[in-house]
Amino acid sequence: MEKSEKMTAKITFLGSGGSRFVVLTQARSSGGWILEMDGEILHIDPGPGALAAAKKYKVNLRKLTGVLVSHTHTDHYTNAELVVEAMTSGARIKRGTVIGNKYAIRGGDGHHAVFSSFHLNAVSNYKALKPGDETNVGRIKITATPTKHKDEKGIGFVFEGSVKIGYPSDGMYFNGQEKHFQGCDCLILNCLRPRSDNWPGHMNTRQALELIKKTKPGFAILQHFGMKMLKGVSFKEAKWIEEESGIKTIAAKDGMKITV
Ligand SMILES: [Zn+2]
Q: What is the distance in A from the centroid of ligand 1 to the CA of 154?
């Protein structure tokens, strides 16, 4: 294949914020991220403000072909039903795929389902995944990965198409996590805190470094920042990871677009 014909993926961040206070103050937007690859347009973890961020950063949600929710924490799902309505032209055209962890699709154990039956019936198909499950959206293979997080049914995703993208979603590094993310062209890490700051159930940059060293992606992107990662800290931490690992590491900004 000619180099000019090489297939790529485009990623757009409809926010780079996570955690309670960044979300509540909207110090950073929290609309999740968009993956465009192999003719599909997937919206991953459409949190609060996803619709507004999509307008601001010129993403047409009516063109989406899939909506994915990794777990049932508010910063990952609160605009999910509205995003489905956008994808289905107000639930008038049955199209697209919804994928979520068990609680996002079915609720249970104190978690309410993220999607109503009205919204699930509006799409062409929907699936609840548990770690290890695989499914396809068009030509993209999606594998659910395990997490170590407060939503114990939470999942991450690996997207395999023209390129391979890993997204462990929320959760702290755990022994063996690296085996799920080998050979990724890009690894997107929800990195809430700097290396000095441990928070059980969440990833800091020291854990991100460990996962990056053990998976050796083409490059890594840090996002989903808590307050302690703002005011330039995310850039310093990304630089530190890059120096320690030798792997290009980028701190996301709201609206950032990256071609993989
Ligand atoms: Zn979470």
A: 8
Strands (E), 53-211: 66-69, 97-101, 125-129, 134-137, 140-146, 155-160, 164-167, 186-193, 203-204
CB 103 within 8 A of CB 76: no
Tokens 């962890």, located at residue = 101
pTM tops 0.90: yes
CA of 19 to the centre of ligand 1 (A): 8
Q: How far is the CA of 150 from the centre of ligand 1 (A)?
A: 7
Please give the distance, rounded to the nearest whole angstrom, from the Cα atom of residue 93 to the centre of ligand 1: 31
| Residue 7: other Cβ atoms inside 10 A | 12
Mean pLDDT of 103-124: 96
d(CA 202, CA 260): 26
Does the domain at 9-254 match CATH 2.60.40.10? Answer given as no
Question: How large is the average pLDDT for residues 101-115?
Answer: 95
Confidence of residue 3 (pLDDT cuts 50, 70, 90): very low
- 70 CA to middle of ligand 1, Å? 9
User: Is 106 exposed, middle or buried (CB count within 10 Å of its CB: 0-12, 13-18, 19+)?
Assistant: middle
- 248 CA from centroid of ligand 1 (Å): 26
pLDDT at 2 over 50: no
